[in-house]
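Fold this sequence, please.
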Amino acid sequence: MTIDELLENFELITNWEDRYRVLIDLGRNLPDFPEEAKTEENRVEGCTSQVWLLCNSLPGEPPRIELRADSDSFIVKGLLAILLLTYSGHTAEEIKRIDIEDIFRQLGLEQNLSPNRRSGFFATVETIHALAEKAA
């Protein structure tokens, strides 16, 4: 699934309970995250839930970024899946130009997530930007 396909799917789902189910399903389909990588170094600061993030540089010129993430919260895993759909496979420069706030609005997340989850979502975005820049 691409981020555009997810946006289209969310447009068809008007009930937020159903959207939460989609988020949880997205989170369940995250690629496996190595247990040994659940370290303080890979933990995202600013999240109420535990969130871990790995960033790898894929061969190529310029290198593309591959992200892996995990959380101890099902909803947060779904939010991480959205970020991986949005950012993985892009260059650091492309990542900087992606308007994640617009995607956040289009998905209707701004009015349906708690302030803590919203804050954690954007803390993860900042971490992705920093890791992508470092990996480039």
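The chain has a mean pLDDT of 94. The domain at 3-135 is CATH 3.90.1010.10 (Sufe protein. Chain: A).
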